[in-house]
Amino acid sequence: EWPEEYCDYEGGGDVAEGIELPGRKSDDSAIALLKRLTGEFVLTWRGKLPPEEFGDLLYSLGVIYNEAFLAVEKNNHGYTTLRRLWNNRYPSGRIYRQYTGPNVAAQDPSESIGFLTTPLSKPPLIDNFAWGIREGKIIIYDKDFLEELSRLQHDDRGRVNTHGADISVAGMLAFEAHMKGQNYQRAPSEK
Q1: Could you give the residue ranges of the DSSP H alpha helices within 1-42?
Q2: Where does the pLDDT of residue 75 fall: very low under 50, low under 70, confident under 90, or very high at 90 and above?
Q3: Please, which residues bridge with residue 125 across strands?
Q4: Closest CA to 129 of 3, 32, 30, 62
Q5: Which segments within the chain are labelled E, that is strand?
Q6: What gap in Å lies between CA 138 and CA 151, rounded to an integer?
Q7: What pLDDT score does 20 carry?
Q8: Longest distance between any two alpha carbons in the chain, whole Å
Q9: Residues with Cβ < 8 Å from 93, sequence gap 6 or more?
Q10: Alpha carbon distance 101, 132 (integer Å)
Q11: pTM of structure
Q12: What is the DSSP secondary structure assignment for residue 158, as one 8-state letter?
C-alpha cells in the first residue's frame, strides 16, 4: 500500500551481512512498515544488500512513508546501516533510541540510535509483538510474514530462535517503534 498523506508509519529493519557465502545459508535483511492508525503492515521487503545500501533503502522508504519512525537492529552490521541513515540526515527524532541505563552517556548522538538485541531485550520484543497480535493491534496480510511467524517456537530452554525469520524480526521492531511512538505527536508544521 502506498502511503497516505498525513498518516504516520512505523518501520522495522532487520540487518544482515548482505552476502551469500558458498555452502552456507545466510540471513536476509528485511523491512516491515506499519500504519500507526490501523496497525496494518503495509509493506514488507526481504533481500540481500550490503548494510550501507540497506541504510539507503531504509532512508528512501522512510522518507516516502512520511518520515516513518524507524527501529533498526544495531547488532553487528546494523551499526553500518544506522550510520548511513544518520549520515543521510534522516530526521534523528524519527529513529528509535533504546534506553541503555542512567550511566551511559553517548559522546556522539548517533551512537544511541537503534535497537540492540540481547538476551534481555529479545524476550520483551517477542512478547510485545505476541500481545499485539492477540489484542488485534496488528494486522498482517503478507503470506511470507505469516508463514515465518507460524514457524517460531520456544525451545526447551524457553528461548525463541529467530534465525531465518527476517521479516518477523523486522515486524517486531516496527511494532516496538509503534509502541514507543504512541506518545509521539507531530507538530502541525511537520505534517
Answers
A1: none
A2: confident
A3: none
A4: 32
A5: 9-14, 29-35, 41-47, 69-72
A6: 18
A7: 61
A8: 53
A9: 184
A10: 26
A11: 0.87
A12: S
